[in-house]
Structures are given as C-alpha cells and as structure tokens.
Amino acid sequence: MPSNCTYVCFPCRTSASRSSRSAPVLCQHCGEEMTNMGKQFRVPRKSDKRGWENAKRILEERETTSHLREVRRRIEMSKYR
Fold it and tell me: Which tens digits make up the pLDDT trace of 22-31?
C-alpha cells in the first residue's frame, strides 16, 4: 500500500494528503496542480508567510540539487563514450 505524500499550492497556501501514486492533485481553490513536497513535509499555517517562503526556498533548492545531480551523471557517462 503506497504511503501518502503532502501536496501544497503555494499561491493559495493550502495542502492536501494523497497517495504518492495518484494522478496529479489539483488545488480545490484555484484549480492549479499542487506540488508534491514528500512524506515528511510539515505544512506551515496559512498565516505564516515566512514559513511558506521557506517552503518555496526548500523546493527550489531541492530542484537545483536534483538538476545538478543529473548534470554530473551525464558528465560521468560522457567520459566513457
């Protein structure tokens, strides 16, 4: 049984918990696709502006790190061609 992940909508500052294998999760307020923040993400209160800014920064850092890992992997693979 897949475990639930936390999905957030940054513009609306809302969250939802859904199966990690489910279809794209849409925000009930604006209809945009929500962002999967993983299983252990702690959602800030709606009024906590700094908490939501930090969450957005964490997401951007995670995406940057993931991109850098992919670039490094491609560089390593190109060495052996």
Answer: 688 999 999 9
